[in-house]
Amino acid sequence: MAGFSTAVTGLKASTTMLDVAGNNIANSSTTGFKASRTEFGDIYATAVVGAGSSNTPGSGVTVTDIAQDFSAGTIEFTNNNLDLAINGSGFFQLDDGQGSVTYTRAGSFELDKEGNIVSKTGKFLQGYGLDSDGNRLPIDNMRVTEKESPPKATESIELSFNIDSREDPSELLVPYDKDEPASLTYTTTVRSFDSLGNEHTIKYNFVEQRPQKEVHTFNLNDGGTVLTEFELSGLEDAAGDPRPIDTTADFSVGDGGLSPDGWQRIDRDTLELIQKQDERIFDVEYNSVSDEVRVILKSEFTEYGDVVTNLEYAQTTDDSPAVSWVSSSKQQYYEVGDGLDAGTTANLVIGGVEVQISAGSADMSSSAVGEAIVDRRSAILDANPDVENISYDEATNSIVVTFKPEAGDDGSLVIEQSSSIAGDFALVGAAGTVDPYSTVGGDDSYQGVYRTYAYLNNDELLNIGKDRDPGEASGQEVGPVLINFDPSNGLLTSVNGEEVAPGAPAPKLTIVGADPADPDTEITLDLDGSTQFASASIVKSQLQDGYTKGDLIGVTFAPTGEMVASYSNGENQSLGVVAVATFENQDGLQPNGDTEWAATLTSGDAILNPPGTGLNGTLRSAALEASNVDLSEELVKLIEGQRNYQANSKTLETMNTITQTILQI
Known about the structure:
By secondary structure, the protein is mainly beta. It has 6 helices and 51 strands.
């Protein structure tokens, strides 16, 4: 009787179903475990002849497959960065070091004593190494090879700041002294590191150029020897030949005018030659009485190097100049005559303001005339905003009109006499416009210009790219450089003589000598984004790329699989990329125990790629994938399996009763 065999197959199938459900329940808390289900098929005996009869009762049931459910389990977070979970499809690849490769979703990893990342069974996690350029290397064991981060010398500093445009440079103490805060406009400090990892500081002092021109005065009379020729800043003529300055020929009243204090100006053609050699020079003057030459620098270049001369024509002459400062303001000198005779009236129009001076019954002295004009100063200044002051200079018997420094050389004031005056004139000149007998040129090049100094550890002045003074050997030297802002909008316009193109980053400076351990180290200083606005002076951002030695403090993983080592010096380093394996038919994987699977011919070979590429899931660090077992469903399967087992047992019992009945006949 076939019923016995049929019942036995049912018992076996039910037992397998209970075994599978029990295994699922037992592994409901196993990390990365995938539930299985029992799949059944019926059994029918067939024959070549007469096959297919609809009256065939069947021979029972068989277990056709124990299929695995590879759906993702819940991701649970942990406190261990080496716990990994794949959020999506894919498997971790493991290598036991003996040639056996398996795959798992259980990401409970740890570091062994050699720095390898291993599973709880001691198998090596596989991934891509990285070369020094960040390129991926062939698949190998993932390992933490860099237990410490070597020091790196600072090679780049980014510094962006705002300097308050409301600061008054005329209030700065002179000359500049790095240890005197009142002599500088703004200061800030950035830390740096040398090639051995020692920490240093680089202090930056910013000194706004003030409305003053620097004067270098050379005394050409020493011990009775008078020097009539000297060489200034390597001066050359139009042909490029050496061109000494001749004090008897290059200075005259007619060429540049006689200044109020007796200085003769150099002729304008010679001045142009000088300025081609040294753009810093504003003017050159000579005093035949004191036998002195003074070189006046533009206000942009105050305290910005020396004036180089070659006094080889008279060895006894001291070539060290005396340094002083004069105002950058333009000045006009109008000579007052000998005064006014009694009963005489002078009618003047000064800058649009009528000024009437009457001598009365007695003669009026020239100083009294001058003071009478100064008495109308307030009205004249109100009508002429570029004028800073009007004064009377008794030493030169002159009315001095001083313009504001920011007016540069464009300041002007018109003085007119309405008619000629009988006797002495109030101002030298006939009726009509009165011309000044001497004019000192104004210079507004100081506006928005800052000298920038850099000091190592607030002590050693560094070379940040200052060109040597004209007339010296070419190259760079220790000293300040100039940075310029547009006074109309506060934006950076030039750095060390290089213009900032619209929309382009600012030119960079190179700092030399800031690494005591390696003098060849150069630091690039980027001041891009710095401004001169009417707000508090602040550092807007600063960044430097150096660091000291660091020890490994942890390893983390990015969603794209990068293994990043963190060090005590704050640096991070990518050491590799975890590989994720996928299969054409993951249902064909063979369970290997320890929540691992092996590839088979049915599954196909593993396809390895970094996480997050293609169909691969992303990586989650400090997380584990829980089992995907549904306990409620498994308990229902237990009930079903028990019911099926009891029913098949009943079949056996029934078949046994029938057999006994037959035997009793």
